[in-house]
TrEMBL record:
Keywords, comma-separated and alphabetical: Hydrolase, Metal-binding, Zinc
Residue ranges constituting the Metallo-beta-lactamase domain according to the UniProt record: 16-194
Protein name, per record: Glyoxylase-like metal-dependent hydrolase (Beta-lactamase superfamily II)
Cofactor: Zn(2+)
InterPro entries listed in its UniProt record: MBL_Glyoxalase_II, Metallo-B-lactamas, RibonucZ/Hydroxyglut_hydro
Pfam families (UniProt xref): Lactamase_B (PF00753)
Gene3D superfamilies for this protein: Ribonuclease Z/Hydroxyacylglutathione hydrolase-like (3.60.15.10)
Biological function: Counteracts the endogenous Pycsar antiviral defense system. Phosphodiesterase that enables metal-dependent hydrolysis of host cyclic nucleotide Pycsar defense signals such as cCMP and cUMP.
Substrates-to-products reaction catalysed: 3',5'-cyclic CMP + H2O = CMP + H(+); 3',5'-cyclic UMP + H2O = UMP + H(+)
Amino acid sequence: MTSQLRIETFCLGPVQTNAYLIRGEDDNKAIIIDPGMNPEALIRRIENLEIEAILLTHAHFDHIGGVDQIRKLKGCPVYIHPLEADWLTSAKLNRSAHWAPQIEPIETDPAEYDLAEGQTLQFVGHSFKVFHTPGHSPGSVSFLCGNDLFSGDVLFRLSVGRTDLPGGREADLYNSIQSKLYTFKDEVKVYPGHGPATTIGYEKVHNPFVHI
């Protein structure tokens, strides 16, 4: 029987972005999903850990602020959907330039690997299945591992991701949630890009934006 993930949440940066540190049975190995801005607390936590990979749900600035610092520190690869590969290297595309001078423009080295719909990644002794879930942004993805779903800015507790930024599309967002995320078991726990965790079953009943 496969052990459960051990998931630690770090709320990072000026817009309180959730970064997730995920381990399996091995205490010394982990992956990170969406290392956001001002990642000092996360960096302290991983000082003695081997980081196998950084997975990105999408490439808006608040989700990628810690990418290069952690990648260079730990020598780990970065995974992103190809529709947003060039966002990592462009402060204009990842929207950090939009917030100058309040924040420094964020530009990182390119990702090492692409993500694709239906792909299965093996990390920390577990399988993470990739679902392309556009709408909030064109390259948004969600990661499902057992009964744990990392939804980025697609689905939140009692809310959904905004679609008014460049590349966002409301119809795509609702389709991603209804045709993909809402097909998962009700007990699947949702770890979103912002705010508290929820479950698929709870959102199917209570989310005011997307109903079954």
